[in-house]
Amino acid sequence: MPSNIKLRCGNAKELIIDVPENSQDLILTDPPYDMITPNIKTPPLTQFTKEILAKNFHRILKPTGNILIFVGLRDKFRWDGIFRQYHFALRAELIMVYPAGMKTPKHFQSAHESAMQYSLSKNYYFEEGALFADVYNTKRARGVTRNWGYDYATAPADKMHVTPKPLGMVQRLVEILCPEGGDVIDPFMGSGTTGEACVITGRNFTGYEMKKDIYLFARDRIKAAGGKRKKEEVWW
Ligand SMILES: C[S@@+](CC[C@H](N)C(=O)[O-])C[C@H]1O[C@@H](n2cnc3c(N)ncnc32)[C@H](O)[C@@H]1O
């Protein structure tokens, strides 16, 4: 079945108020981190904005739903404190090892990043069959990622000022954390990676983006993904 797609250009903290209660299977998002680099100039979210978002995440997520949020070094603990206030339990921290980090002055290359999985109950959706087998070939499913970098081929950082997540990784996260035909929201969709992953895998998608040029890029990308829809993976 084709995905139902709703895209809006505007501020996530205002748009999310219209999302119905208990309607989302997965909130998969990558908000601006609490840092500013020469390439990524989007200001960090305030504590107040984070709190409004967490409150609405609690309202819109189904009892079996998941949050998967990409976090930076500094905001990881801030988000965690806020999510705990709204009764979300931390289920896992995923470490993505990248071939290289971003170029930032006077810094070690930060070549890994975290994504945190939260849920409201232990009864969260989790499709184990979609995990990778582990590297020791014991056939036990373990991981979600391979050695990908930011997908600058999709959305060049110097033009777009976003850090596009690898499509293959996001696709797999969607398949593990949301049933087919389910509802996914990404309030900070950037270049539209989550939206494309949803179209390819048959999930419904709601996406927000504040910057008009990035929004238009994402809209076109997600529209074009309709033609690519297929069951197989799109890793390589
Ligand atoms: C880290 S990027 C997301 C990148 C995305 N995961 C991808 O693969 O392209 C975060 C995005 O959130 C947008 N953004 C920042 N503040 C926002 C807000 N208050 N409401 C909506 N979008 C916002 C930024 O313009 C940026 O494109």
Task: Describe the protein in words.
There is one protein chain. The longest helix is centred in the first third of the chain and has 14 residues, at 47-60. The strands form two sheets. The chain has a seven-stranded mixed β-sheet with strand order 1-9-8-2-3-5-4, with helices on both faces. Strands 6-7 form a two-stranded antiparallel ribbon. Helix 2 crosses helix 3 (75-85), helix 5 packs across helix 6 (193-201) and helix 6 runs parallel beside helix 7 (212-225). It is α/β, with parallel strands linked by helices and 236 residues long. The chain has one domain: Vaccinia Virus protein VP39 (Rossmann fold, 3-Layer(aba) Sandwich). The chain has seven helices and nine strands, in the order E-H-E-H-E-H-E-E-E-E-H-H-E-H-E-H. Bound molecules: S-adenosylmethionine (SAM).
What's the arrangement of secondary structure elements?
Elements: E1 5-9, H1 12-15, E2 24-29, H2 47-60, E3 61-71, H3 75-85, E4 89-97, E5 112-119, E6 132-133, E7 141-143, H4 157-160, H5 167-177, E8 183-186, H6 193-201, E9 204-209, H7 212-225
Parallel strand pairs: 1-9, 2-3, 2-8, 8-9
Antiparallel strand pairs: 3-5, 4-5, 6-7
Helix pairs in contact: 2-3, 5-6, 6-7
S-adenosylmethionine (SAM) is lined by residues 11-13, 30-32, 42, 155, 162-165, 188, 190-191, 193, 208-211, 214.
Characteristics:
236 residues, alpha/beta
Strand content: 15-25%
Report the mean per-residue pLDDT as an integer: 86
> How many E-type strands?
9
Helix/sheet category: alpha/beta
Order of helices and strands: EHEHEHEEEEHHEHEH
What's the Cα radius of gyration? 17 Å
Low-confidence stretches: 231-236
Helix content: 25-40%
* Broad shape: globular
Which fold does the CATH topology refer to? Rossmann fold
The tally of helices reads 7
Counted up, domains total 1
